[in-house]
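Lab meeting minutes (informal)
Scribe: AK
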Amino acid sequence: MQDRRLRVAVLCLVAAAATLSSLVCAQSIPAPGQSNDIGVLSPAGGSAQRQAAEQGLATLARRLPASASGVGANHIFDIDDRQLGSAKIGDGFETYLVDPKRLLAGKLLGQSLYGSGEWRFVVVANGKGIGLITVALMNSKWTMVEAGASELASEIVSVAARYAQQNPGARLRFVRSPQAVADFIEVSAPSGAGAASAPVYVPLASARATLAPNRAEPITPRSALSDTELDGALRQRARLGMRDLRIGHD
């Protein structure tokens, strides 16, 4: 319920943010869902999307402190609202969704992904990820539609930092299965790196909770699972989620 109340507050702020003047796009962006490295975790990825996230953060920083209702007030991000003025927009990435029908038809997880058209940006303060801002194309303009998810932001930053140490750096994509209630970071070889090996998937907190009951070996934040290792449990959960509409991400 707390998350839902926070989301309602953010949507009210979104309406205000939509009145801000649009900025000139600094680079051309492929159509949502187009297969391209533009969707990977990248500090400079998504120019128009990034500008919308920056506008959204500025609106939140300006309005949230004034709307706080005392010491016990809930915070959208993992920071006191009064400190949002020093926060910055970090890595941006498109959310890739799992097509459950393709997955259940026997396709590999990587073959079942499609771009959602929504982009998330990590909000950074004091050197750590404190939350995410989600932007989407509304009435031909990129606009903030959601903010929060501090724990997810922290995990994404941790995984990205771990793989940034590789040379050449791995290609990372954020993957969500709404039906299985599972988030992953897909890790694959960068474009032009020669013969590509099969991608592996780092299970984030929701995925670890989904997969753990079906595995003999423990799953940790440092696990990297192949499609074969995900196969049975992920497909079982996706099938269940398609049958029960109560199952899914908020």
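Next up, CB showed the second protein from the same session:
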Amino acid sequence: MPHAEPSLPSEPVDNPRPAAPATYTERLSPGIWTYGAIALFCVFVFVMIVIASLPIAAGVSLALLVAGSVAAFVTSPVVTVADGHLQAGRARIPVNLLGEPRTLGRAEVAATMGPSFDPRAFACLRTGTGGAVVMDVLDPQDPTPWWLVSTRHPEALASAIRAAQAR
């Protein structure tokens, strides 16, 4: 049975508002300690395999080092403020549904993530970033009470969110 081809518009459809460039973008790449742990793991693998063959041990260890480092970097979440939305990793929310962003230092992040942490909250948390921004969710339909987003530049992220909220 033949499939019908979808009809295409005869004239191009104009996009009335092109996507605005991102006002803030940051990849929460792993810290030096993560890469050190990957390297240490590769040393252990090397020591276990070197008994069989030095070239094989070196090749396997080097391949693991490269693969682990690339995987750690590629899978690290990206935080973006663009086109009226905050995106942290795969999660995305319109900034008009967020309250006033508050910056947190390392100690405040640790306290927030402690025993009083609300499990309904969204947290895009990466160690080694040093700070975070927290915002209440204003949408009464959303069961998530607040967002906590790690960043190396809390003031810059908070400013970008405020600027997007003002638009």
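CB comment: The chain has two domains: 24-74, 82-166.
No objections, moving on.
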